[in-house]
């Protein structure tokens, strides 16, 4: 069993600070005073029953969702609804989606180079070379000239991860990256995420893979009904939970 | 064997039987092959056999009548319609169509200047030829240059006049730029065919880029290719200004040539106008949204003929009196807006079919609105909508014949004019049959091309 990452104690720089975040869909209160600090290099796994607001929380961090109350800060810089904040978000955070969201009209390689050539203004050859090293790292460089429709779900999700990594983010957000996959493909994606966790990347993962959480996570957050029920090292939250709600959930998942 | 036995830890282990598929048999003869299919489809009951025979008889007599009228009894050489009747009263009089053929194609364009029309068409096709090869990069740039620059070449060749005088200085400069760009494309292609293994660059890139690319930044490459483009344009300017083409006023344009100009212009402009209107309609900015919505709904609710009449009669009233419009440019503007409004709804349909996740993925990567639209969303939406877009193009091509009503001498009006010729008085059928065949060939090949395009894109996926 891994204990919480010793790096966290040595460099307690906050990558993300969430303070009393509130969000409503109409009258429905989906996030209720969520307060959480995520440190640099930390692997944070968010779990909880469906409808507990975990996806909404992670999507609020990069402004895919609006929130009505509360604050988010990235590397100490508070976020607002302006261009500066958007640029900060795009420069520091990458995201991997449940449904991959690859661009189906572009090849695997072009999916990865599009941002490099248009946003980072990299020359074509350099962009292709960089994208190929990333694809090689996730084990699918040989599929570079295929279209997303021609490869399996697990391979698509690995492409999506390298597409995000190509923009060189400091924080990676994973929104249920394995939920849309056939069971035999879950492992190949989790392996890639495990490799990534060893590089010191800050990772926030919404996932139902408890095995992954136990092996990789520095801390686990359990959410229910839009609230954080408990936060702590995996052996604490997943093995000896304090609250009955957590225990109830774990009995259903494990 | 022993090991397997111990691994399974079962006493009743038996080796697996080997599965061999039974041999394939040919199908029953009655249901297969040419004869089988005919029997199954057309003669599977007494009633059906009877229907088949009746249909064959009808087809035979109809076919015989058509062949008799159009070929066997037809007259191909005659000076007047009377001569046709004297030779063969029941056949088609193709002689009239043949003697008017030039008029049907070029309208009243002076015969000695018709080479300019042919040259314009050839240049237009040659410009687009590189699009056929998948190995040529930046084909989008070539297509874009055609859309943006070819109209200037066309106007220069078709209208003529002293260079830079009748059409103005700006037009002259753009014509030179167009010829310069065409030269640039082909010099690039030739260089690539001779020099390197793959065709390296076309479009805005430079002749000598591949040698220097590693050491030069993109900006230098862009600036130097601009310089070469400018140089080639200057050469074109020197050449073009050394002679004058006689002026052919727009009133003399006509026939299939004019039909092609109107259809080609509206087809190429329909997409950009449609994209702008479709994006406008989806815009969150209220003013733009309502403006686009208004244009789309009003134009779609009004018949094309009304739009054409309004363009010819109303547009000059709203314009300052010193701005003079010719009928053709009014018609072109009207048809463009009309086609654009219909195209906008096609494109909007495609845009709505793009999943929200595509926008989210683009946003999280850092793409802004326009980049997301042009790099990610529109390419997918347009591909998805190819069948609908092609249908619009085909109906647009057919709709252009309506301009004959407001007095433009397109192929339809020229055909009707034949009946007014004193030598061919009352000859209506033959020219209309010819036009029907012509439009069928054009529209059918367009629809075949669209099917081909769909197939090619499916292979891509």
From TrEMBL, chain A:
Gene3D superfamilies: P-loop containing nucleotide triphosphate hydrolases. Keywords: Amino-acid transport, ATP-binding, Nucleotide-binding, Transport. GO terms for molecular function: ABC-type amino acid transporter activity; ATP binding; ATP hydrolysis activity. It is a peripheral membrane protein. One of its GO terms (cellular component) is plasma membrane. Residues 16-250 form the ABC transporter domain. InterPro entries: AAA+_ATPase, ABC_ATPase_HisP-typ, ABC_transporter-like_ATP-bd, ABC_transporter-like_CS, MetN_ABC_transporter-like, P-loop_NTPase. Belongs to the ABC transporter superfamily. The keyword RNA-binding does not apply. This is Amino acid ABC transporter ATP-binding protein (PAAT family). Coiled coil: none annotated. It comes from Marinomonas balearica. PANTHER family: AMINO ACID IMPORT ATP-BINDING PROTEIN (PTHR43166), PHOSPHONATES IMPORT ATP-BINDING PROTEIN PHNC (PTHR43166:SF4). SMART domains: AAA. It is found in: Cell inner membrane.
TrEMBL record, chain B:
It is a multi-pass membrane protein. The keyword Cell membrane applies. Keywords: Amino-acid transport, Cell membrane, Membrane, Transmembrane, Transmembrane helix, Transport. One of its GO terms (biological process) is amino acid transport. The keyword Transport applies. Coiled coil: none annotated. It comes from Marinomonas balearica. This is Amino acid ABC transporter membrane protein 2 (PAAT family). GO terms for molecular function: transmembrane transporter activity. It is found in: Cell inner membrane; Cell membrane. It comes from the Bacteria. Belongs to the binding-protein-dependent transport system permease family. HisMQ subfamily. Its main location: membrane. InterPro entries: AA_ABC_transptr_permease_3TM, ArtM/GltK/GlnP/TcyL/YhdX-like, MetI-like, MetI-like_sf. Residues 256-446 form the ABC transmembrane type-1 domain. The chain crosses the membrane at residues 42-62, 115-133, 140-159, 179-208, 220-243, 255-280, 301-319, 365-382, 402-419, 431-451. GO terms for cellular component: ATP-binding cassette (ABC) transporter complex. PANTHER family: INNER MEMBRANE AMINO-ACID ABC TRANSPORTER PERMEASE PROTEIN YHDY, MEMBRANE COMPONENT OF AMINO ACID ABC TRANSPORTER.
